[in-house]
Automatic annotation (TrEMBL):
<dbReference type="InterPro" id="IPR039876">
    <property type="entry name" value="HAP28"/>
</dbReference>
<feature type="coiled-coil region">
    <location>
        <begin position="120"/>
        <end position="147"/>
    </location>
</feature>
<feature type="compositionally biased region" description="Low complexity">
    <location>
        <begin position="47"/>
        <end position="64"/>
    </location>
</feature>
<dbReference type="InterPro" id="IPR019380">
    <property type="entry name" value="Casein_kinase_sb_PP28"/>
</dbReference>
<dbReference type="Pfam" id="PF10252">
    <property type="entry name" value="PP28"/>
</dbReference>
<keyword id="KW-0175">Coiled coil</keyword>
<feature type="compositionally biased region" description="Acidic residues">
    <location>
        <begin position="26"/>
        <end position="43"/>
    </location>
</feature>
<feature type="compositionally biased region" description="Acidic residues">
    <location>
        <begin position="70"/>
        <end position="79"/>
    </location>
</feature>
<protein>
    <submittedName>
        <fullName>PP28 domain-containing protein</fullName>
    </submittedName>
</protein>
<feature type="domain" description="Casein kinase substrate phosphoprotein PP28">
    <location>
        <begin position="94"/>
        <end position="173"/>
    </location>
</feature>
<feature type="compositionally biased region" description="Basic residues">
    <location>
        <begin position="1"/>
        <end position="16"/>
    </location>
</feature>
<feature type="region of interest" description="Disordered">
    <location>
        <begin position="159"/>
        <end position="212"/>
    </location>
</feature>
<feature type="compositionally biased region" description="Basic and acidic residues">
    <location>
        <begin position="159"/>
        <end position="180"/>
    </location>
</feature>
<feature type="compositionally biased region" description="Polar residues">
    <location>
        <begin position="181"/>
        <end position="198"/>
    </location>
</feature>
<feature type="region of interest" description="Disordered">
    <location>
        <begin position="1"/>
        <end position="89"/>
    </location>
</feature>
Length: 212
């Protein structure tokens, strides 16, 4: 039978690629890609990528430890290769990679500089400032709302004073009326008592009876 398009791998031994072979393949791909980029961009630094690839290959074959600069270059290349394909989805921590730290001199650091606020924080700060200023003006009675409150309060006080005066006048009139009624009642009772007293004190007139 002619051999088909797809090969049946059943019954065969599985072949696993070692990490060294994977690293060598990635370096070869890096060399080929760097050569293609150097050909497209021009010949500013010819042979740079080839030299790095040759150094890395020779060091890998000979088993010698690379220097610090070569180690950093290789770590950068490994990082770039890891970002390609599925390997870019996996976060790998490389202990050989040196982090670049920006050191500032002490004389260039100013303690007086205030941290920059975001737009939202600036709006919140401005709102709080305006609110405090409005509350202060309101307490001093300089705002339109404060003036309206004072006018309403004065009107309420006037209405209360008028109602209190009216109640006092009504109470006084009721007291005067009560005193008048008491006086009339006491005067009538005294007159009746005097009439009764006069009637009791009167003696009957003496009558002389003559017998004819």
């Amino acid at each position: 039978m002619p051999r088909g398009k797809y090969v049946n791998h059943k019954g065969r031994r599985r072949h696993f690629t070692s990490p060294e072979e994977l690293q060598q393949q990635s370096e070869e791909e890096e060399d080929s890609s760097s050569e293609a980029e150097s050909d497209d961009e021009g010949t500013d630094q010819p042979g740079g990528s080839k030299a790095r690839g040759a150094i890395s290959k020779s060091s890998a074959k000979s088993g010698k430890m690379p220097t610090s600069s070569e180690d950093s270059d290789e770590s950068d290349e490994v990082d770039r290769d890891a970002k390609k394909g599925v390997a870019g989805l996996i976060e790998i921590e490389n202990p050989n990679r040196r982090l670049k730290k920006v050191a500032q001199k002490i004389e260039h650091i100013s303690l007086d500089t205030k941290p920059e606020l975001s737009r939202r924080e600036q709006k919140q700060l401005e709102y709080q400032k305006n609110r405090r200023r409005y509350e202060q003006l309101r307490a001093e009675g300089k705002t339109a709302e404060a003036k309206a409150d004072l006018a309403r309060l004065a009107l309420i006080r006037q209405q209360r004073a008028e109602a209190a005066a009216k109640r006092e006048a009504e109470k006084k009139a009721a007291d005067e009326k009560k005193n008048t009624n008491d006086t009339v009642a006491s005067g009538g009772s005294s007159a009746t008592n005097s009439v009764l007293t006069d009637t009791k004190n009167k003696k009957p007139a003496a009558t002389n009876s003559k017998v004819l």
